[in-house]
Design goal:
4 domains; Immunoglobulin-like; 5-stranded mixed β-sheet; 536 residues; 2 helices; mainly beta
Length: 536
């Protein structure tokens, strides 16, 4: 660090220390000062004379709108930064700038709709969004320290905004829609309750899941009855979805893909499916029939799910119906435009998408045989895999938050698949099987081969985290059952470090192999001279 910057930071430290002494010396509390539109500070030019960034052609700026309080995030509409930096949310104390309660990284140039996680217990009716440099360890917020406030025209770039709890809607988001007839390119949604301004969006039904959007209309904060939505009737399917979106970007401009994303409550989209018909008096076309409705594909492990896109040029997800192998879901291929995340979501009893029970990061481009570890105790027989961006802290899963779903043709890129076995409470049966010319060996109830590891010892697994990327423990989720020919007295379990129980046979832990995709596969036999089929 050069001497000029070191001197500047020393001055900042002296100022901060002086303010603390003054505060401690005060004998009586100061009268509350009225809210001001910008923080009152000493002339920054006297404290800090540093460049605001390496890109001198960019004028740093921050645009933030008044917004409802009570949440865990603040959305900053636009941040222009001359180099990598930070947007920091400060509370207001006695009418002036107070401590920081949250921050988020910003890139060089223009950053739109930056979501900043905050401590809601420390939020105030007026707050400040302050732009800082990232001069220290890149990606690590260091202030007090090298990540000093950005200075423009001798002043901090730190506009104030209101976060008035009086503007917080007490409305619980809701969508109600009965089966509808499309008349003159319009259909009516019975009721939309929105916590803040938003959008009701009509999506097609493609292979058991929401497809492209074919119409939308704005809704106001609160209750909206009999909402008329103009749609493209020529693209309507026999089943449609009504999905509630936010209006987080430009007011009254539908921005999807973009700032306007589906509203989530407890990780679930606010959406309802319904049947649609076209009124004959006004229809010149026949609605496209959904050949897969209401089925969701075969439950046979290894059978390709028909909902998957075949192309790999754009973002796509390909997953198979499968038997659970330990706590692992296998996604055969993911194509991502930039780093991202895969989230595994359960299906709720009413058929809608529920919260994520597992996630894993993916790289830009083609990702093959992606494994996602899930919470077995929450798994359901039908689940969704959804592709997300990695827009927040890189390498940190933030959803709900900045890691929003990837949108394709106006809808989130997600696919439904079926799973069998391995869920909480389900018995674990060991059977005898023979596949691909191998000798008789142990399999699970679905016929998937089971292996032992030569480096294990009776009663102990030595398969570490790297090993488990390819070898998945057979977990005990219920009772152990020995099929004909399997010695029940040799069945047992060991306790793993994460609290789960791994099934053993003759004392040796049992595993699945990532390369086995079908019953009878034995591709793990002899791998590295350490892995072998478990025999009775």
């Amino acid at each position: 660090m050069n001497s000029a910057k070191r001197s500047a930071f020393q001055k900042i430290g002296i100022l901060l220390f002086t303010f603390l002494l003054a505060a401690c010396a005060a004998s009586t509390p100061a009268a509350p000062a009225p809210a001001t539109p910008a923080p009152t500070m000493p002339p920054i030019s006297e404290v800090l004379a540093t460049d605001s960034g390496s890109n001198s052609s960019v004028t740093p700026s921050v645009t933030v709108k008044d917004q409802a309080s009570g949440g865990t995030t603040v959305t900053v509409a636009d941040v222009v930064s001359a180099g990598p930096g930070w947007i920091v949310i400060h509370r207001q104390d006695s009418g002036d700038l107070g401590p920081a309660i949250g921050y988020a990284a910003v890139k060089d140039g223009d950053n739109q709709n930056v979501i900043v996680k905050i401590d809601p217990s420390k939020a105030t009716p007026v707050m400040y969004a302050m732009l800082h440099v990232d001069e220290g360890i890149v990606g690590a917020y260091q202030f007090p320290g090298p990540d000093a406030p950005v200075i423009g025209d001798g002043q901090m770039v730190a506009p104030s905004f209101k976060a008035n709890s009086a503007t917080v809607s007490n409305v619980t988001p809701l969508v109600k829609v009965s089966d509808k007839e499309i008349t003159d390119g319009t259909l009516k949604v019975d009721e939309v309750d929105s916590s803040g301004p938003g959008w009701i969006v009509i999506h097609t039904h493609v292979n058991g899941e929401p497809g492209p959007a074919i119409g939308h209309v704005a809704v106001k904060d609160g209750e909206n009855k009999d909402v008329s939505v103009p749609i493209d009737a020529s693209k309507a399917t026999a089943v449609l979805y009504a999905i509630l979106y936010t209006d987080a970007g430009k007011t009254d401009v539908f921005e999807s893909p973009g700032a306007d994303i589906p509203v989530l409550v407890n990780g679930q989209m606010i959406a309802q499916s319904f049947k649609a018909t076209i009124a004959m008096a006004s229809a010149n076309t026949t609605p496209t029939m959904d050949p897969n409705m209401p089925g969701m594909g075969s439950a046979t492990p290894g059978t390709p799910n028909p909902t998957q896109p075949a192309k790999s040029s754009g973002p796509s997800v390909s997953v198979f119906d499968q038997a659970l192998r330990g706590d692992t879901i296998l996604v055969s291929q993911v194509v991502s435009q930039g780093p991202g995340w895969l989230g595994i979501h359960i299906v709720t009893p009413n058929g809608s998408m529920g919260p994520a029970i597992g996630d894993t990061s993916i790289v830009d481009g083609v990702n093959k045989n992606v494994t996602v570890h899930i919470d077995l105790g929450l798994a359901t027989p039908v689940m969704w895999v959804m592709l997300h961006t990695d827009k927040g802290v890189v390498g940190t899963w933030e959803f709900p938050g900045p890691d929003v779903p990837v949108m394709v043709d106006g809808g989130p890129l997600m696919s439904k698949f079926n799973v069998t076995g391995g869920m909480k409470g389900s018995d674990v049966m060991l059977k005898l099987g023979q596949g691909n010319g191998a000798a008789t060996s142990l399999t699970d109830s679905q016929g998937m081969s089971l292996y032992y590891f030569l480096n294990d010892t009776p009663g102990k697994s030595n398969c570490d985290a790297r090993c488990k990327q390819k070898w998945f423990p057979l977990l005990a989720t219920g009772k152990l059952v020995a099929d004909q020919g399997v010695n029940a007295s040799k069945l047992g379990v060991i306790l793993l470090s994460d609290g789960s129980r791994q099934v053993t046979y003759a004392g040796l832990p049992l595993y699945y192999y990532i390369g086995d995709n079908h019953p009878g596969d034995t591709k793990g036999q002899g791998v590295d001279g350490l892995w072998f089929l478990s025999t009775p």
